[in-house]
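During the no-cost extension, the postdoctoral fellow (Dr. R.K.) reprocessed legacy sequence entries with the updated structure-token encoder. One reprocessed record is reproduced below for audit purposes.
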Amino acid sequence: MLIDTHAHLDFPDFAAETEAVLARASAADVTEIITIGTTVAGSGRAIGLAEKFPNVHATVGVHPSNAEEVENDFIGPLRVLAAHPRVVALGEIGLDYHRLPSRRVLEPQPAWLAETPFNDPREIEGAIRDGAYKARQAEVFLAQLDLAVELGLNVVIHERDAWDDTLALLEPYTGKLRAVFHCFGKSIDHARALLELGHLVSFTGIVTFKNGQIIAETAAQLSPGSFMVETDCPFLAPVPHRGKRCEPAHTRLVAEKIATLRGQPIEAIARETTETARQFFAFQRAG
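Re-encoded structure tokens follow.
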């Protein structure tokens, strides 16, 4: 029995065949799935799926990439959604600096400007926009961490190119909540830093990629009970499906790869990660 701890079943990719997708997951021994909210509206859809399918659980939250779009009073509607009995965590929330405004809008500096002693005004504008972008993400992140503490929920963290800031904002919540850093892609030292704070990590199909060696090394070394498995579907399909749409059934391929890396039978990985997920997400809340 396996649990896909991070799927996006509310995305349009699955709208036409949700039942077939769940059937394939069950056939692969993926018996439970957590579908993740990324917007207030998407969180509502996640709950709807959890209400319809007994083996689906939901989280609610605003993804950092959607922070600029969210209404200032978003915590009110999110609080209502988070109180639903099918909700097992808050997420995915966090920081993502991968596509800063300055990277999206700045064109190459013209030759004549490079020869002047003055800063490119577009660089100044980009820095200002980057600062506002990061500040808004932090504001949305902290508001949701506060809500998680209020409701006694753990959190699903999205972190990309923002490691130091994410840990700095999360540090005051140590002992008040636990986090899982989903789609973990860093070294064993990074993972151990999280474990020391009481948090967990979760691995996706990247662990099967040829360029995922660091992740594979991390997965091979972590102790039981410190990690979970996921797909992040429809993204990051594992080998041999890389480049195609990912789905919850592929959780088994992630677990099989980790079992090989650790020299364990797949049954052991399934048992360990399932128990870890049940404890972290407190499935009893879902009825």
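The mean pLDDT is 93. The longest strand covers residues 87-96. The remaining legacy entries will be reprocessed before the final report is submitted.
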